[in-house]
Amino acid sequence: MLPISFFPDRPLTVAVLGASGAVGQELLQLLQERSFPICELRLLASARSAGHVEPWNGSSLVVQEVSEAAFEGVDLVLASAGGSVSRQWRQVINSAGALMIDNSSAFRMDADVPLVVPEVNPEAVAEHQGVIANPNCTTILLTLVLAPLAARRALRRVVVSTYQSASGAGARAMEELKQLTQVVLAGETPCSEVLPHSLAFNLFLHNSPLMANSYCEEEMKMVNETRKIMGLPDLRFTATCVRVPVLRAHSEAVNIEFDEPFPVEEARQLLKVAAGLELIEDFEQNRFPMPTDVTDRDPVAVASHSAGHQ
Amino acid sequence: MLPISFFPDRPLTVAVLGASGAVGQELLQLLQERSFPICELRLLASARSAGHVEPWNGSSLVVQEVSEAAFEGVDLVLASAGGSVSRQWRQVINSAGALMIDNSSAFRMDADVPLVVPEVNPEAVAEHQGVIANPNCTTILLTLVLAPLAARRALRRVVVSTYQSASGAGARAMEELKQLTQVVLAGETPCSEVLPHSLAFNLFLHNSPLMANSYCEEEMKMVNETRKIMGLPDLRFTATCVRVPVLRAHSEAVNIEFDEPFPVEEARQLLKVAAGLELIEDFEQNRFPMPTDVTDRDPVAVASHSAGHQ
């Protein structure tokens, strides 16, 4: 779906910025699994992580400290080291002639930065000016579901409640969940350091700052990014983002109102064939998507459960 | 709020039916904590639990097998042994002259059975004909929030997503969650026996049968019971009920549309003073209700978080 000439027709020099983080590790895994055409891979991170050795295609690579020189000759930078790191290095990266695909929230809402979900709005990449942004995790799942439905009937209003795993807060949050769960099981009182509260057998509103409108930042990311990706700046959309004691994979309960009646069977067929989705629903067995279904897998599991007319 | 003559002005003979279950245990605890006026307490259960000894007010009581004779002279039966047990003993209980307060779903939607949340519709008890039903757990939380708001502005539509703890599935489900969590932490594959799937670091649609309309039974209980309690048979209301790996206390993300604008501050003040509720919200600290706030406590914690205009 990308323009044919988007990248030169040769293996690329790729840098992963934030190679030691939870997302960086997943990126390395995917680049190998998908045989991404790479002639040279540079693993970049903060000074703290420099020197770490990461396995790569049967061999290994040493993580380097990020620097101006590290981007020389690079074609593509996959950045996932947080918004401030992305902001700090954007100019250097673009001056080196590299395209930055940024997983942070730094530039997502900038008018000159395409915000892309490949299955939803691949055409947007053509307008990039050196940076393509990747949306927030919860936004990706949602737009994969909204896009095929919105292509058939206009959306009137969307209400989402999320069930977000510890993985979204990084590898340390996952470790903390496991550790504090042990503490609770031992009958002791858990005390969190990574997340603001103990997530062990508990849940809480997403740990991002509250905004003036009383939504948390994660919720407004979801609202604003979805509107941008879908090209629906006025979409009525409210989200409640909750962190739950799941290690990996976010879930969402999504209620969508359409301008016209939308037969459930028609919606189900659309979801069944939509790119990036896997329909998991067995009404007799009460078997619908669970985090353990999708952990370490690519497709987003979806069901048309409770698609009623209320 | 009860009619003054609802009960005789003397300590009552009370039977707890299902005294050995998770809810029965909570009932015994509450009867003691609240110094409920009891002259004789009978603990009744299936043959399997007969003979168990339960602590009671510094002494102890032996659980008896439920029988016709066990209800003789009883004023009040608190039943929480499942719908089939309630159905089986209703006639016997009423013939013995006792009032049955039933926690099962057996009679909730019957026209001659008041379905009561004391803070919401206490007046409904006056119409009882031997049975007063107690709604489903998720319905109680929700109506405590809806009632004070609906008294001020007409409800247009309600969308709820639940985050339900293992406790709702009983003591064995709570034990299973703890045990399977240990299994996952040990790096092994959990295999559930009580709940249909392992809840350890996982979540799934509520484990109740699916209905013809593609909602699960738990969701339709919530919809139908809420409509009955609120006296709004046509209320537009959809629910998605999800079991999460929390031990105790259900949570709900509730989105309410009103017919007219409802200033958030006005709603907040109503929730702050409403019976049965405790407002927990600190926008600066991102501190909102969590299951661990309310475990072993009576009030339902509520926040006006993300009360926007979408």
Automatic annotation (TrEMBL), chains A, B:
This is Aspartate-semialdehyde dehydrogenase. The active site is at C137 (acyl-thioester intermediate), H250 (proton acceptor). Belongs to the aspartate-semialdehyde dehydrogenase family. It holds the Pfam family Semialdhyde_dhC. GO terms for biological process: diaminopimelate biosynthetic process; isoleucine biosynthetic process; lysine biosynthetic process via diaminopimelate; methionine biosynthetic process; threonine biosynthetic process. Homodimer. It is an enzyme of class 1 (oxidoreductase). Keywords: Amino-acid biosynthesis, Diaminopimelate biosynthesis, Lysine biosynthesis, Methionine biosynthesis, NADP, Oxidoreductase, Threonine biosynthesis. Residues 13-128 form the Semialdehyde dehydrogenase NAD-binding domain. SUPFAM superfamilies: Glyceraldehyde-3-phosphate dehydrogenase-like, C-terminal domain, NAD(P)-binding Rossmann-fold domains. It catalyses: L-aspartate 4-semialdehyde + phosphate + NADP(+) = 4-phospho-L-aspartate + NADPH + H(+). Its EC number is 1.2.1.11. Residues 288-310 are annotated as: Disordered. One of its GO terms (molecular function) is NADP binding. The keyword Repeat does not apply.
